[in-house]
Amino acid sequence: MRLTKMSLEDKEWKGFSTKSVHGAEKPERPGSVVTPIYETAVFAFSKTQELLEVIERKKDGFIYTRWDNPTVRAFEKNMAALEDAEEAAAFSSGMAAVTTTVLSLAHSGDHVVSTRDVYGGTFQFFKEFLPKLGIDVSLVDVTNLDEMAASVRSNTKIIYAETPTNPTLRIADLSAIVKLARKRRSSKLITVIDSTLASPFNLKPLQFGIDLVVHSATKYLGGHHDVTGGIVCGSKESITKLKDARKILGGTLDPIAAWLLLKGLKTLGLRMERHNLNGMKVAKFLEGHPKVKRVYYPGLSSHSQHSIASKQMRGFGGVVSFEIVGDLLKTMQLVDSLKLCSLGASLGGTETLVTQPVTSSHHFVSAGDREEAGISDQMIRLALGIEDPEDIIADLEQALRKI
Predict the structure, then answer these.
(1) Given 110, 117, 194, 211, which residue is catalytic?
(2) Which in 32, 50, 123, 127 has the greatest CB count within 10 A?
(3) 211 has catalytic annotation
């Protein structure tokens, strides 16, 4: 299936959901309405000269699926359109996207500044893996810009943050981070934001001047708990470097996974509207419950960074974290008493999932590091699906009665 660029006139009237369905390009007519799955490892050429032109990037084409693939590229183009980016690179998982991005930008002797409360796998990569390669990492509070600024060194290459953070739902002030980075722009300090918990429906970090935005596509983008993937969006120059690194490191997205992600994107706008609605309703319910000690949700006026979140975000997503009045065993009892909400370590899908970070995403993070990141034994993370909010609340009510 050949794809042609949409005209400027076409793009002017396209909203988020229209872009989600149709992407940045359109198929020629007659042709397939949906992007086909190009489930092939290798592409053949009729002439050596044609092969050389594609290898040398003088001509568009495909050689080997680890390098590039039409279905994967269609997903990349669609995501670039949704993030208002020049280009995007797809990966086999969110962690493949994170690790390839960092490893392509930082090398032995370099320094990275990262916010402390990040996804557990990212935290382990920064804390345990990068130092083995001679890359030093400073972990800071995402809300403390003075600490972040003080941590920047002459050899700092990356400022990395999540927003909202996982699982504490803190907010990175993107404009302030960009301002900080631009003071060092001459030495190529790159800003990277993991926007998985926001989705491009709720937040577009590149619009604030951020260099690269990362998503675990497994979450909201796929939306159905049936595919694993990652994506990075940014400038054409940056993404070309990432794709060169991906070619060597091998974390390329599979064509079938790309097809599933394209399918998920078509309903992203509709699903995010429900995720946002459910998040707000459940957060308000929990905030008023006597057995709940604290609720973490940027949509609540009680959230310490609600004003920043309101300026940056279109909605606040479907992840709500909260702490109960009790201990670890009582928290486990509550989680085990839920009936509609399934115990599972992911988010962004149609079904509601619940986890305790200490028994899942941050289980292998030390107790001291968890405490520094604000992750307690009594914390529960709800990854709300698209069920009716009344049913989710009823399930939480019956479970809370049992503790």
Answers:
(1) 194
(2) 123
(3) no
The answer to whether 345 touches 361, Cβ cutoff 8 Å, is yes
Average pLDDT of span 98-106: 97
Q: Which residues make beta-bridge pairs with 252?
A: 91
Domain stops at, among 249, 265, 281: 265
SS3 160: strand
User: Which of 10-19, 68-77, 387-396 has the weakest average pLDDT?
Assistant: 10-19
Bin 158: left if φ > 0, else alpha if -120 < ψ < 50, else beta: beta
**Residue-range definition of the domain harbouring residue 323:** 269-401
Catalytic residue at 194? Answer: yes
- 328 shares its domain with 371: yes
Judge whether 263 counts as a catalytic residue: no
Q: Are residues 101 and 168 in the same domain?
A: yes
Please give the model's pTM, rounded to 2 decimal places.
0.93
Given 19, 77, 110, 119, which residue is catalytic?
Answer: 119
Based on the fold, state whether residues 113 and 51 are members of the same structural domain: yes
Q: Which helix (H) or strand (E) holds 113?
A: strand 111-115
Q: Using omega within 30 degrees of 0 as the cis cutoff, is the peptide bond preceding 389 cis? A: no
Question: Of the residues 219, 271, 370, 381, which is catalytic?
Answer: 219
Secondary structure class of 65 (helix, strand, coil)? coil
| Tokens encoding 378 | 């009594």
Known catalytic residue at 185: no
As a whole number of angstroms, the distance between CA 287 and CA 93 comes to 34
Most confident residue range from 1-5, 166-170, 394-398: 394-398
Given the structure tokens 């060194």, which residue do they identify?
153
Q: How many domains does the chain have?
A: 2
Looking at the predicted structure, is the pLDDT value of residue 1 above 50?
no
